[in-house]
Amino acid sequence: LAPPETVELARHAAALGVDAVSYMVPCFFKPVGDAAVAKMLADFALAVPTTPVLFYHFPDMTGVACNMERVLVAAREAAPNVVGAKFTHNDLADMQASIRAGFDVLIGSGDELLLPSLVLGTAGGFSVPGMLGGSRAILGSLHGESAVRERHDPP
């Protein structure tokens, strides 16, 4: 089960009308296996049943290796508001399997994987270099077609 503070913050965010909340498994008391990860995600999602939930899949940070597609599918069976994930990993086959299973996926390790992930069907992503300096790269998906646009800040 998610720590009470995590659930409380998610409920507060939901009450404010956020578009979605995200859940990352604990880094200390770690779940073991896909079923345990899915149960933790579903329990969290059930605490905010009308708010979309994204699984923050970051195995290098959490130390929890799992198959994201299996986790998302199992969690969605228990909590239909599990809609996708922020994917900060390099297993693009797992990422694409999640997309094919109907989940929205954002790439979190976008510096190297942003463009390939867009080709594979992600909804968008994050790129640290794109967030720095005088220009910002805005990457996303519009009606199923990847769109890349650059906005220059005024001098």
In short:
By secondary structure, this protein is an alpha/beta fold. The chain has seven helices and seven strands; from the N terminus they run αβαβααβαβαβαββ. It is globular, with a radius of gyration of 16 Å.
Intertermini distance? 49 Å
Query: What amount of the residues lies in strands?
Result: 15-25%
**Judging from the principal axes of the Cα atoms, what is the shape?**
globular
Return the average pLDDT rounded to an integer: 82
Strand count: 7
Explain how this protein is built.
The protein is α/β, with parallel strands linked by helices. It is 41% helix and 23% strand. It contains 7 helices and 7 strands. It has helices at 4-15, 34-47, 59-62, 68-78, 92-100, 110-119, 128-131, and strands at residues 21-23, 53-57, 82-87, 104-107, 124-125, 135-142, 145-152. The strands form 2 sheets. The protein has a 5-stranded parallel beta sheet. Strands 6-7 form a two-stranded antiparallel ribbon. A hairpin with a 2-residue loop joins strand 6 (135-142) and strand 7. It is globular.
Outline the fold blueprint.
Elements: H1 4-15, E1 21-23, H2 34-47, E2 53-57, H3 59-62, H4 68-78, E3 82-87, H5 92-100, E4 104-107, H6 110-119, E5 124-125, H7 128-131, E6 135-142, E7 145-152
Parallel strand pairs: 1-2, 2-3, 3-4, 4-5
Antiparallel strand pairs: 6-7
Helix pairs in contact: 2-4, 4-5
